[in-house]
Amino acid sequence: MTPPLLKIDEAREQVRALEDAIRRLREQHADANPRALAAYLGSLVEELWRLRAQVDAALGLDRAVTDSAALWVSLRGGTVGEGKAPAYAIGKVLEAIQTGVKQTAAYIETRRAFLRGVPKEIAQEVALDMVALAPGSARIALATASPQFRVDLPRPLVEVALESLLRAAEWAETGGDDVSLEKLLGETIVRRQVASRIREIAPSTTGPYEYLEFSGAVLGEGRRILMTARAYQHAAEYLKRRTIEEGSYKGQLVAIDIEKDLFSLRHAGRRIHCAFGTEVAEEARHLVGEFVEVTGEGLFHEDEELPYRINVTRLRKLRHEEHRDL
């Protein structure tokens, strides 16, 4: 039941009084250690958030936000506190989540990985909007930006992609083995992408926040996933030890020096050096300028999602319908 208007007005007056008191104390102790000051003001801030939540609940605002949110992201610890966090930290987390959802959704839909240039219709379908910032350190509510009208999927694509990304986050936090990640994501490039996104999202030992928590409708009632520096470290170690991986990549074959059998593959706006063995080199010479699929051993820098070199063992010219969307 909505509280009487008088009680809402009283709560608003108390909110203003607390805001004034907190502002005066901050001015009086401007030279104090920020963490010590935050601890000193902690009880006042908690009461302020409680009263603000009471007003929002009375007006029905909290329920409207909760109902529309697919995912809640909460940052805690470090320099985060009093319902706020550095803008760059929030921006980095949200961008990494959105990028990860788009890349994962594109793989789910097409069964191929995209470094960038995710098909426009998929990117639009899984776009996320920030619908609220809420009390409790820094809590961010995310909702789908577009209505989900498709009937060919049991669940909206954005939810499936989000769930895959969150399961990978849980894998990183719990120190899961490589086989578990392979079962979750069957493509080498996508696994590297997701591990890279986890490193961007998870707290690091030098970052502005110490804990990151996911909750909301995508995870189900009462379920939460907590990420700490363990998730960051596990994802980083995964990428570090997997600097050589087998994979297949599609793009346009370009000759650097045909006489010396030097070629590169134009893929996702990048050029990847290709080394062909004697048996494949002659075939490569006849496919210069064509769209091809190369398969072989990829050599990766630790921070990269694409190899800088591929030792090609198989080469195949793509059919027209295969390279149309490259």
Could you walk me through the main structural features you see in this protein, from its secondary elements to its overall organization?
The structure is a single chain. This protein has three domains: 5-59; 71-241, no CATH class; 244-323, Nucleic acid-binding proteins (OB fold (Dihydrolipoamide Acetyltransferase, E2P), Beta Barrel), CATH 2.40.50. 47% of the residues lie in helices and 22% in strands. It has twelve helices and ten strands.
Number of strands: 10
Helix content: 40-55%
| Structural class assignment | alpha+beta
Largest sheet: 5 strands, antiparallel
Task: Please state how the strands of the largest beta sheet are arranged side by side.
Answer: 2-3-1-4-5
Task: Give the SSE string.
Answer: HHHHEHHEEHHHEEHEEEHEEH
* Whole-number total of structural domains: 3
Roughly what fraction of the amino acids lie in strands?
15-25%
Put simply, the count of helices is 12
The low-pLDDT segments are 1-6, 59-65
What is the gyration radius calculated from CA atoms?
A: 25 Å
**Distance between the terminal alpha carbons, to the nearest Å?**
56 Å
The averaged pLDDT comes out at 83
* General form: elongated
Features:
326 residues; OB fold (Dihydrolipoamide Acetyltransferase, E2P); 3 domains; 5-stranded antiparallel β-sheet; 5-stranded mixed barrel; 12 helices; 10 strands; 47% helix; disordered N terminus
